[in-house]
Design goal:
Layout: H1 7-27, E1 32-33, H2 36-43, E2 47-49, E3 54-58, E4 63-68, E5 71-80, E6 83-88, E7 94-101, E8 104-108, E9 115-120
Antiparallel strand pairs: 1-7, 2-3, 2-9, 3-4, 4-5, 5-6, 6-7, 7-8, 8-9
């Protein structure tokens, strides 16, 4: 061997650097846990959705509408102990910590995988 890097090694290094740089570019701001006041302030009048399976629209006065796998529903929402509590929809009553970075939101509960979503203005749906 003459000390040069083999083509396969160059490709592996290039792929590694691409993945690392893309990950850093996509990382953006870190997720941070919202307080109760922040939850209410950011969610009122907004829609939280995973863009495929479910959507929640948080109205004023604790009214909530939902769409889950094409089925419309209604319920209520409130903030209690710095958690978002939902009552209604397909999963009944439950509470979540809300973690946010930009438009990205994670709803977290003990012992469960987080629900990933985006926060946006309510979209027209059929």
């Amino acid at each position: 061997m003459n000390g040069s890097v083999a083509p396969a090694e160059r490709i592996a290094v290039a792929l590694f650097l691409t993945v690392v740089l893309m990950g850093a570019a996509c990382a953006g701001e870190p997720l941070r846990k919202l307080s109760g006041g922040e939850i209410a302030g950011r969610l009122t009048g907004m829609e939280l959705t995973d863009e495929v399976h479910w959507t929640y629209v948080f109205g004023k006065g604790g009214h909530m509408t939902s769409v889950s796998l094409g089925t419309r529903g209604a319920g209520t929402w409130r903030v209690r102990n710095d958690e978002l509590c939902l009552d209604g929809g397909p999963d009944g009553a439950r509470c979540f910590e809300v973690w946010k970075a930009g438009r990205r939101v994670e709803l977290r509960r003990d012992g469960m995988l987080p629900d990933d979503a985006i926060l946006q203005r309510p979209q027209a749906r059929r």
